[in-house]
Design a protein that fits this description.
This protein has helices spanning 2-7, 10-22, 28-56, 120-126, 128-133, 150-159, 169-184, 189-204, 207-223, 232-246, 253-258, 266-280, 289-303, 307-340, 343-351, 365-371, 391-397, and strands at 66-78, 82-94, 98-100, 103-105, 108-116, 141-146, 164-167. With 408 residues, it is of the alpha/beta class. Helix 7 runs antiparallel to helix 10 and helix 8 (189-204) runs antiparallel to helix 9 (207-223). The chain is elongated and about 120 Å long.
Length: 408
Amino acid sequence: MVRVGSWIPFHAAAKGMVNHFTKVDVSAATLRRKTELAGKAYVVLQTAEVERLERDLPPAPQGPDVLQLSVDGAMVPLLHKEWAEVKTLATGKVGVPVFRRGESQVHTVELSYFSRLADSDSFARLATVETHRRGVETAGKVCAVNDGAIWEQTFVDLHRPDAVRILDWGHSTGYVAAVGQAVFGAGTTAFQQWFDRQLHELKHGDSEKVLGKLRGLRDELAIQTVDGKESEVLKTVRDSLEYLQKRREQIHYAEFCAAGYPIGSGIVESGNKLVVEARMKGAGMHWERAHVDGMVALRNVVCSDRWEEAWPQISAQMREAAKARSAMRRDERRPILAASIPVPEVAAVAAGTDLQTAMPIAPPPVVAAIEDKSVTRPRRPAANHPWRRMTVGRHAWAPPRQAPSAKT
């Protein structure tokens, strides 16, 4: 139930999958409850593992020669028309470059994910359970491919400060395209020719030349400024240039491609769609905030193909949590039971006497009949009892057969 509920909506999982294939009648509410309990159990396990890592500082397993690390966020709908950002970490082993169509293409494989609805600092701490498992700190080289958000760079500072930081290729080209469209006009031939030249130079040549082109456009537009009022075109060019100049060390794409490094953060952008949005942003879905972490934790397991590894731990944690809840309920009932019945009355009832009349208490008729050994009770079901029509009952209550008499 939990595994199916992690993939598809609860109603479809109960009626369309579990009930159909197992012939067991399970309601959507039951399937939802079991799935949410399992997700909560896995969150508890991972949080406890983070605390153990911080306390014991065990050595990390050996990571791959080149590992990619990318983080990003996706919005999910909550109750009462609220939205919240679920942050996701995607990690994977960088494969050997493959030359296709005259270019080197790099693919990242063996992907795994970690997601939480948390602020950036809490997310960076909780993600230690995944970065430790994947050997981020022991990998030969880590390529941190992200967009320009500050919290993403802070995340890299915590887990691998010496990582090769690469600005996502799509974000870089987006800012260059914004400049060209503002200056030459979107969709024009002049824009397309200018844009193609800049992209080729940015990826295969010198990124400083592209920045120089943007500076030239900025200076030309600044000269045309009238009465000190900055036009919208100049503002677009200035903002794009400042964005790329602040990250000039992260846009040396020719060097990155020559070294066999990935330059796109597609592993986490596709992870947002696959892990978070595919399950959490369905039609009419609105989630309670307390249940988001559990669901995305289960999504991390199923989308990372780690179900066989994680489920024994989840089921054991669920059993322990059920035992703890039962013990808590017993402890809560004991004081109430002791306070509701006075101690002398309990002793009197146990002794079989009435406190007001001091006379013995007559046991109920059923109890008296059971205690009376002289009362005879039927040992066999009635002749018309339905159990007699069952195969088991017929054989059990059939009269013993008479042994044939020996012939003399």
